[in-house]
Amino acid sequence: MNPNLTHLQAYPFERLRQLFASVTPNPAYRPISLGIGEPRHPTPLLIKQAYCDAIMAPHGGLSTYPATAGELGLRQSIAGWLQRRYGLELDVATQILPVNGTREALFAFAQTVVNPALASVKNEPVLVVCPNPFYQIYEGAAILAGAEPYFVPSNPARNFAQDWDSVPSEVWARTQLLYVCSPGNPTGAVMPLEEWQKLFALSDEYGFVIASDECYSEIYFREEPPLGGLEAAARLGRPDFKNLLAFTSLSKRSNVPGMRSGFVAGDAHLVKQFLLYRTYHGSAMSTVVQAASIAAWDDEQHVRDNRAQYRAKFAQVTPLLANVLDVALPDAGFYLWAGVKGSDTDFARDLLALYNVTVLPGSYLARDAQRHNPGANRIRMALVAETAECVEAAQRIVQFVQSRL
Ligand SMILES: Cc1ncc(COP(=O)(O)O)c(C=O)c1O
């Protein structure tokens, strides 16, 4: 067996299951879960229709093996979206690759990029730098690629920005891959241009690759849409996106988490190596999913409607919770990342017991690093259910917090 498998951490939902094992939720309330970050708005009809049409097509459909590089039509559709969304002109032949959702791609990319053999130079393991709190796939991807994760804390006093300046130069020198998540899960924070500039300078100096996870980019609450990594590179005079790959998903944008569709785009050299890896890994996207994805990328109305629904929901729920928790409207995403008094695990367990509402303890989404867990005393609430259910959950949380005073 691969010994690195033993270093993988339990997933947050597994830890939650253990935390709740001895809890009997109050039967007076129907259960409401704000725990899992899975979109629950309905899938648009135009995507389902395109999916059905593709299955029934006389040629293609399910009767052919798909190409790992994807159909030209899909790459053109993605390039069109990148043009409309960010004003970017990408080469469909060399700079874009479809992926089966960003989760598998974020994982597989570390296996493509990391060279653990370089560790022997100083006998110290190579590093993959991750935000903290973070999406757990980054950590597992680093470990199974033979690297060690290094966590950079987010700072609540600076809108949860990562404290990049705290990273010692000897850490950057051993870094081969950096994951950034903007808009962030769970913080919702969008990384500004100055931070991108800092990271590009560090990448140029130390030679590491940047994987920019942007799967929440279309759900935002400010006027202007979140800045993308490729957009930042273009603005900073890096038209070849050197050492940068952006990961974008349809799951949240178009409410199709079950379809498994996204893309990576950026540095042509990285795309080429990643395509090589993926050809062997066998991760080509079904042509049926490709056809449905084209329908999704080509339509923006359903995305505007989806965003409007989240905006209305957050406008109702956030002020209710802000009365009793340390919480504010995030830049983007569909989470509230709230500070609580005392232990986050006690909070989650007692809330379930008394009010039958599930939230995720923040410490499960972060690691102890530099003697501190930046998720401690925080909870993550995913506002993915319909507005009325989220409002009811918020009202119960208000009662719960007031009852603890
Ligand atoms: C930060 C982050 N990145 C990536 C993903 C993966 O999304 P998908 O594989 O559906 O594209 C998720 C899903 O929850 C996420 O929260």
Chain-wise SSE layout:
Layout: H1 12-20, E1 32-33, H2 45-56, H3 72-86, E2 96-99, H4 102-113, E3 127-132, H5 137-144, E4 148-155, E5 161-162, H6 169-174, E6 175-181, H7 193-206, E7 209-213, H8 229-235, E8 244-249, E9 262-266, H9 268-281, H10 287-298, H11 301-322, E10 335-339, H12 344-355, E11 357-358, E12 360-361, E13 378-382, H13 387-404
The chain binds pyridoxal-5'-phosphate.
Structural write-up:
- The structure is a single chain.
- This protein is an alpha/beta fold.
- The protein is built from 13 helices and 13 strands.
- The strands form three sheets. Strands 2-9-8-7-6-3-4-5 form an eight-stranded mixed β-sheet, with helices on both faces. It has a three-stranded antiparallel β-sheet with strand order 10-13-12. The chain has a two-stranded parallel sheet with strand order 1-11.
- β4 and β5 form a beta hairpin.
- α2 runs antiparallel to α10 and α4 packs parallel to α5.
- The mean pLDDT is 96.
- Bound molecules: pyridoxal-5'-phosphate.
